[in-house]
Specification:
It is a single chain. The chain is mainly α. Helix content is about 75%, strand content about 0%. It is built from three helices and no strands. Helix 1 runs antiparallel to helix 3. The longest helix is centred in the last third of the chain and has 49 residues. The chain starts with 16 loop residues before the first helix and ends with a helix.
């Protein structure tokens, strides 16, 4: 049985300082916005070294963003479990002691 938890009180985990630095650096370097990955890879082949570095950072930004979304989903599920499983554990302990 799958049930979706709508825990409102869940707080986000603290952001790692290195991740914040990397994100800030990426935002400063990118400025304009991301292109498609295929266009980036094609441009990286014929681009100068600076363009290659910027393209690499753009790809890294995409990966970090995706990882952040996955981690947030896992954190939300964990917080939901922590908040909703207490009653189940208490009941099972009481049943075992009885």
């Amino acid at each position: 049985v799958h049930r979706k938890c709508l825990c409102v009180e869940a707080k986000r985990p603290p952001i790692h300082p290195r991740a914040m630095k990397a994100a800030a650096t990426l935002l400063v370097l990118l400025g304009s916005g991301a292109r498609g990955v295929a266009v980036q890879e094609q441009a990286a082949v014929a681009a100068n070294p600076i363009r290659k570095v910027v393209t690499m950072l753009q790809n890294m930004q995409t990966k970090v963003t995706e990882e952040g979304k996955r981690e947030q989903e896992l954190y939300d599920k964990f917080m939901c479990y922590c908040k909703t499983s207490g009653g189940d554990l208490d009941k099972s302990i009481a049943d075992a002691e009885a």
